[in-house]
Amino acid sequence: MRPPIYLRILGLVTGCLLGLVGAGLAAGQQAGEQQTPPNPLPSASPSQATAAEPAKRELTLEERADIFMARKSYADAVDYYHRALAAKGGADPALWNKLGIAHQQQTNYREARQAYKEAMRRNKTFAEPWNNLGTTYYLEDKPKKSLKYYRQAIKLNASNASFHLNLGSSYYRLSKIDLFDTECRTALTLDPNVLTDRSTLGTVMQARGFTDVRFYFRLAKIFASLGRAEEAVRHLRRAFEDGFADLKLLDEDPDFKKIGQFPAYVELRKNPPKPIKD
Is 82 exposed, middle or buried (0-12, 13-18, 19+ CB in 10 A)? Predict the structure, then answer.
């Protein structure tokens, strides 16, 4: 069976998350216009004509840490985030959040939580560490404990699609399917691409390695309810490949009736793929 979509999401979400690399500043020069002298003059020698190139700016400690994160060298990133924090007297909440993410990538959840809590302590309106702290509990198979952190993150920033998606994922793990549908639909309304190509910068999205054969059916249903027929068909095809076979449920569902005339859906319904076995 192919890897679940949410493991691929994590890769996408992490690639987005870790791509906070500070590049060296590119120096631009504008050549001033010179008036042509009335009489031709000898050309200046190369040593005279070449201006001194501006010195390149040295990367900050935080930028170096970001580069290590992008390279997935998490231990080095932790080291440089600590150095950057020391240089700033530990007063930067965003740096504490980044440090937490670096620890989390190493599955050092205890250290990650300490860093997130420090970020929260220094900025009580900073939503990202609340969400990220929730992911540490989710990834330790404690979805119920993650709920309050996701809810607080949403309270602080209700427009972040990743927060709603994470909350919905915990609801799914707790068999609260209606709440999962609501949060997932909200996430897709806020960010139509949240499941496909990116996550909010600086925010951890949790892995969702579900094996429930109806999971992709639920996603297909949500996309159908939003009128996004192509995505609905794609997830429904995956549901069939994972073993979904309840055609009666499919035919009776009001959301799928909304895309009932979509050609790809008609073809899929007539010729559903057989389950892919391990």
Answer: middle
Q: How far apart are the first and last CA of the chain?
A: 5
Calculate the alpha carbon distances from 230 to 128, 202, 243, 259 in Å.
32, 30, 20, 9
Query: Which amino acid, residue 181?
Result: D
CA dihedral (131, 136, 137, 143) positive or negative: positive
In the chain, how many H helices and how many E strands?
15, 0
The three-point CA angle 228-250-173 to 5° equals 80
Measured between alpha carbons, how far is 216 from 214 in angstroms, rounded to an integer? 6
φ, ψ of residue 158 to 5 degrees: the values are -75, -10
Residues in the chain, overall count: 278
CA-to-CA separations, 202 to 11, 14, 160, 180, in angstroms, rounded: 14, 9, 11, 23
Cα-flanking dihedrals φ and ψ of residue 126, to 5°? -80, 110
| Residue found by looking up tokens 């005279």 in the block | 48
- Could you report the per-residue pLDDT of 18-76, keeping only the tens digit for each? 343 333 323 333 333 333 333 443 344 444 445 566 678 899 999 999 999 999 999 99
Q: Quick count: other Cβ atoms within 10 Å of Cβ 107?
A: 11
3-state secondary structure of 219: helix
> Hey, is 210 helix, strand or coil?
coil
What sections of 157-203 are H helices per DSSP?
A: 161-173, 177-190
> In Å, what is the CA distance from 248 to each residue of 136, 152, 235?
39, 39, 18
Instruction: Give pTM, 2 decimals.
Output: 0.76
